[in-house]
Write a structure and sequence with these properties.
The complex is a heterodimer of chains A (95) and B (491).
Chain A lengths: L7 H7 L6 H21 L20 E2 L9 H4 L6 E2 L2 E5 L4
Antiparallel strand pairs in A: 2-3
Chain B lengths: L2 E12 L36 E2 H13 L3 E2 L2 E2 L2 E4 L9 E4 L6 E2 L2 E3 L19 E11 L3 E4 L3 E5 L6 E7 L6 H18 L11 E11 L9 E6 L2 H20 L7 E6 L4 E7 L9 E2 L6 E2 L1 H9 L5 H12 L3 H8 L2 H12 L4 H18 L11 H12 L5 H14 L3 H7 L8 H14 L1 H8 L5 H12 L6 H13 L8
Parallel strand pairs in B: 14-15
Antiparallel strand pairs in B: 1-12, 1-13, 3-7, 4-18, 5-6, 5-17, 7-9, 8-9, 9-12, 10-11, 13-14, 15-16
Classes of the chains: A alpha+beta (95), B alpha+beta (491).
């Protein structure tokens, strides 16, 4: 069974990972193996099976629209590497 | 060459809930930074989302109001992307199974920009919808010189996305679509839809193609518009820019642009090569939804829609289509009108007072209809006094101003000011007799066939009554007495 096409560099970019050439080669073969296993599933006949997103037949797990106390700004920011004026501060990102 | 414009909109609406979509943090506009956060909306490891039932009900109600099909079954998916406004690196949204499918928004004439209302290309147009789905909003970013600050109050609040078919033909139609949609959302109490507060935002897809070409031109997306007039301006700019590009023999590419209000231009953000790849998949943390009970609840909350209200005002109160539309445009205004018109002898007279005198008085007092100091019953009382001939229309204006300022009832003011018209025929007849006796020359002229002295004589009666004589009744009595000649009660 041949492994499906896999663009490791593209996948890495989507995941914001910087890979060396050596890593690209290594992951290429590892991920191809994983995909080959998944390909095996394609052989199962599912024509009579209803598509389902979840295994257990549980529906409508809701909560009522009631607001409850949450973190104080101080608690929310307790683990922030950088903060100012009660805001999380990150490297500048502008699209 | 002539070019055709095709526009599709993606409208984001903040739902009016007390708590967030997947956690119990409060939804509050204008709170201090990061005042409403918890492990779930901060995306901390291990935190689990639980759906807000009311948010689902409001989305279902929106679907019913917009004539959508409500899917019997829907689910939530993860939309994966990396940006500091979404620290768990995915936004919970709905991909292939949204709550609402299809539907349409009817555009009414007054929803168009004022300067375009006289030249509506496609009256009574309905803009079809593709779908409505529910997702969570993201955090708010503040960009500084070298860093970005992030406030998570908005993160995880329920956000409804309404996607139109590419059926909007002009910037003016896009304007009318947003105004009409906003009105329906307000009617349903689904959202406050205040664009200044970012409660209604929209992405616009616009393309231009030469007339006769079947396939659409390259789709250009303008991101994150937050005023209706901005949408119109940005689209008008884009249509012009794209047409000029095509006329210059250049090709357009699919790309995303940003509108800058200050310079009134759009700027390139990213091209197709850098388009996002969100890798949607079902969110394993959230169980699917069967919508049957949501539909039952939503149906019970269905309001009378703006179009139905307009039609009813015309039918029930005999007001013009235009007046009905102005009234129905504002729920507070239409509620006021109905309260005043319900017991009025002439509802049509009420509408003129409401739309002219009342609206201008309220707005020059710097108030909204909700703070109107004049209760509707007071206006009914005034209009009925005029209608019954107790005071003249001109005096009515005076009384109205006094009522609006002092809050006193119309009858009280009329009494206090001694404005009440003299309509008692006995008293008027005596006055008329007096005038006829005192003016033999004009009376003789009139009897000789000259109608002119009638007004003079009427003026004399008014003078004698200190302006209080009812002009209509006075005329009648005068005419009767002058033409009756030697009849009983005559001269």
């Amino acid at each position: 069974m041949s492994a499906p096409d896999l663009d490791v560099r593209y996948i890495a970019r989507l995941a914001r990972l910087e890979l060396s050439d050596e890593e690209v080669a290594r992951y290429q073969s590892q991920l191809s193996n994983v995909l080959t296993f998944v390909e095996a599933l394609r052989k199962v006949d599912v024509s009579g099976v209803e598509p389902t997103a979840h295994a257990s037949p549980v529906f409508n797990v809701f909560r009522q629209d009631v607001a409850q106390a949450s973190f104080t700004p101080k608690e929310a920011l307790a683990n922030a590497p950088r903060q100012a004026n009660d805001l999380f501060v990150v490297t500048k990102v502008v699209e | 060459m002539k070019y055709l414009t095709t526009i599709g909109l993606e409208v984001h609406v903040q739902l009016k809930t007390r708590s967030k979509m997947f956690c119990a943090c409060a939804v509050e506009y204008g709170a201090g930074p990061n005042a409403h956060t918890c492990p779930t909306c901060l995306g901390l490891p291990g935190a689990l989302p639980v759906m807000n039932q009311h948010a689902l009900e409001l989305t279902t109600l929106t679907g019913l109001m917009l004539d959508c099909a409500i899917a019997p079954y829907c689910k939530f998916d993860r939309k994966n992307y990396f940006y500091p406004d979404m620290p768990k690196n995915y936004q919970i949204s709905q991909y292939d199974l949204p709550i609402c499918v299809g539907g349409a928004v009817p555009l009414h004439d007054l929803a168009y920009p004022k300067d375009a209302q006289k030249s509506i290309a496609t009256p009574d147009k309905k803009v079809g919808l593709v779908r409505i789905h529910l997702e969570e909003d993201v955090a708010k970013s503040f960009h500084y010189d070298t860093s970005t600050g992030v406030d998570f109050n908005r993160a995880g609040t329920p956000l409804m996305e309404i996607v139109t078919e590419p059926e909007i033909g002009s910037p003016e139609e896009a304007f009318a679509f947003l105004s009409s949609l906003r009105q329906i959302l307000l009617y349903g109490g689904v959202s406050d839809a205040d664009m200044e507060k970012g409660q209604l935002r929209c992405d616009c897809n616009v393309s231009v193609r030469p007339e006769g070409q079947a396939e659409f031109g390259s789709k250009i997306e303008i991101k994150n518009m937050n005023t209706v007039s901005g949408v119109r301006k940005a689209l008008a700019y884009e249509v012009q820019r794209q047409t000029a590009e095509l006329e210059g023999g250049r090709k357009l590419q699919q790309e995303t642009r940003r509108w800058d209000d200050a310079s009134a231009q759009t700027f390139l953000m990213r091209t197709k090569e850098n388009a996002h790849d969100y890798r949607y998949f079902p969110d394993p943390d959230l169980m699917p939804v069967r919508t049957e009970t949501l539909v039952t609840t939503a149906r019970a909350g269905m309001p009378e829609l703006p179009s139905a209200k307009r039609a009813r005002f015309v039918d029930q109160y005999g007001v013009s289509g235009y007046d009905a539309a102005v009234l129905a445009d504002d729920q507070d205004l239409s509620a006021y009108f109905e309260a005043a018109a319900a017991k009025a002898a002439k509802p049509k007279a009420i509408v003129n007072w409401v739309l002219n005198d009342l609206l201008s008085a309220v707005s020059s007092a710097g108030k909204g209809m909700r703070e109107c100091p004049l209760p509707p019953q007071a206006l009914t009382e005034l209009v009925d006094l005029i209608d019954a001939g107790k005071i003249s229309g001109k005096q009515g204006k005076e009384v109205f101003a006094e009522m609006f300022g002092s809050g006193k009832g119309a009858a009280t003011i009329v009494k206090e000011k001694g404005l009440e018209q003299l309509s008692d025929t006995g008293t008027l007849e005596a006055l008329v007799d007096q005038v006829i006796a005192a003016n033999p020359k004009p009376v003789a002229d009139f009897k000789a066939g000259n109608p002119a002295p009638l007004n003079f004589l009427k003026g004399q009666v008014m003078k004698l009554s200190k302006g209080q004589a009812n002009p209509v009744v006075t005329s009648e009595i005068l005419q009767r007495k002058l033409t009756a000649g030697e009849g009983p009660g005559g001269v």
